[in-house]
């Protein structure tokens, strides 16, 4: 397979082990997200993993938002 692209190889074929260390899949208000743990009870959303377009419009569940579980 040949890819004709201007994008660097690291963006097309990312190294999964380094990028996803400390990240985990979870459900926040019924929306599947990939989140990174900041401390014992708080997480930061890295990516919304849902296929429902309405989940991407939720302002509380955007990448970079901090969420907490108690």
Automatic annotation (TrEMBL):
<dbReference type="InterPro" id="IPR025619">
    <property type="entry name" value="YlzJ"/>
</dbReference>
<protein>
    <submittedName>
        <fullName>YlzJ-like protein</fullName>
    </submittedName>
</protein>
<dbReference type="Pfam" id="PF14035">
    <property type="entry name" value="YlzJ"/>
</dbReference>
């Amino acid at each position: 397979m040949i890819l004709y692209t201007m994008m660097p190889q690291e963006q097309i074929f990312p190294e999964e082990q380094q990028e996803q260390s400390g990240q985990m899949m979870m459900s926040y208000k019924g929306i599947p997200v990939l989140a990174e743990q900041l401390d014992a009870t708080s997480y930061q959303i890295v990516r919304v993993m849902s296929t429902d377009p309405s989940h991407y419009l939720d302002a509380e569940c955007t990448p970079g938002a901090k969420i907490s579980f108690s």
